[in-house]
Each structure stands twice: as C-alpha cells, then as structure tokens.
Design a protein that fits this description.
The chain is α/β, with parallel strands linked by helices and about 210 residues long. The chain folds into 2 domains: about 5-95, Transcription Regulator spoIIAA, CATH 3.30.750; about 105-210, Pectate Lyase C-like (3 Solenoid). Helix content is about 15%, strand content about 35%. The chain is built from 3 helices and 15 strands. The chain has a 6-stranded mixed β-sheet with strand order 5-7-9-11-14-15, with no helix packed on it. A 5-stranded mixed β-sheet has the order 6-8-10-12-13, with no helix packed on it. Helix 1 packs parallel to helix 2 (about 60-70). The radius of gyration is 18 Å and the shape is elongated. The termini are close together.
Length: about 210
C-alpha cells in the first residue's frame, strides 16, 4: 500500500494522522492494520494517535479506535465532537482504557538533539529529527527516531525487554535495551531502510525494517 495513503506528523501530544485526498476507508484501514501487525514498531504501545474529527465518518473512527486499542495504541480526535445526546458525547470523548496494563503516553520531540542534550521519559519517545553524538535518550518504553541516531539510547530502562529502538539510520555510540548493552560496529553497511534494534536470544540485534 502506498505510503501516501496515511500521512503521519509528530506533535507535542502524539502522532497526527491525515489521509490522501480521495483515499477510501478500506485502503486506509488496510494500510494501518499492516503497519500494526508487521511488528516493525511503527506504532509503539502507549502511542497517542490523533485525527481531525472531520477526517473520517463516526463509524470509521470507531473501527480505527478498536483496531488501535487491540495493539495498545490510544486513538482520539484532536477536538471534541458535538453530538446530539449526552450519552453519545460520553462515548465519543472517552479514550480507550487498557485494563491489563498502565500505558504511558509517548513523548514527542520535534527537534534534533545535539551533544549534551538528554531526554528522559517513563514511556516511549518519538524524535522527529536526529540524535547527534553526545546526546542521549533514556525511555521506559520504546524509542523511535525519524532521522539518524548517533548518540546514546536506552530503551526499556525499567526492565522492559520487549522495548525496541527504531531509526531511519541507526548508528548509536551505545545502545541499551533493558539490562543489555551494545554498540554499533565501526563500519556498518548502509541501507535505504529504517533499522530496528531488539532483544533476540539474549542479545541486541539490529535489522532493517519497512516503515
């Protein structure tokens, strides 16, 4: 499915979804479902996904809300939707509750992190920019960098071994996931794909992925 069907922009409160003009809902849903089920970490657990209230029909928003909820992702409109009855308004304005776990909202950083700068978060972190040498990110959840990572990153800092680190170009000075530590080799083969670091068989493995 074309990447232009679903467009994503980072904001201070989460990720903003927009759709290609003329795209039908079935194509939108299929594209999002594929990303959620690919295991690529495109939407990390605890992410807040927002959409303009007039971008989709009510029934289509509800279908996406249920789909995202199955993967631990919070889906909401960017502003309240005015409905006819109080009961409908209550249903529409609620954010899905995940009773099985306490989800932490993703922290979004819309800038490049320069040497000496540090980001600490209890949940996941999304950086829309580069992470330069000397900068570091310490997150309780996963880390997603929409740029090049050359700094130090620590995902799953509180012991979450399922956390991942994703970057368009993953070349960190040091990478940690839970209690494991690794670093990039001095020379890495360049790839046009994004890369993901995760724990497999007791060690940190870096592999290319599709965004």
């Amino acid at each position: 499915m074309s990447e232009d069907i679903v467009k994503i922009k980072g904001t201070k409160s989460g990720l903003q979804l927009s759709f290609h003009l003329g795209a039908d809902f079935e194509a939108i849903e299929q594209d999002i479902r594929g990303k959620l089920e690919s295991g690529s970490g495109f939407f990390t657990r605890g992410t807040v996904i927002q959409v303009a209230p007039d971008a989709l029909k009510k029934e289509d928003r509800e279908r996406l809300r249920k789909l995202f909820s199955q993967h631990g992702v919070l889906f909401r409109t960017t502003e309240p939707v005015v409905l006819q009855t109080a009961s409908e308004t209550a249903v529409e304005s609620k954010v899905p509750v995940q009773p099985e776990e306490d989800l932490q909202q993703m922290q979004v950083v819309n800038r490049t992190l320069r040497g000496g700068q540090e980001i600490r978060a209890k949940g996941s972190v999304l950086v829309c920019g580069n992470v330069n040498p000397g900068a570091q990110i310490i997150a309780g959840g996963s880390i997603d960098i929409r740029g090049t990572c050359r700094g130090m990153v620590h995902a799953g800092a509180y012991g979450d071994s399922k956390a991942v680190v994703i970057a368009d170009h993953l070349m960190p000075m040091q990478i940690r996931i839970a209690n494991l530590i690794a670093r990039s080799p001095d020379e890495m083969e360049k790839t046009e794909k994004a890369e993901r670091a995760s724990i497999k068989d007791g060690q940190i493995v870096i592999e290319p992925i599709e965004r």
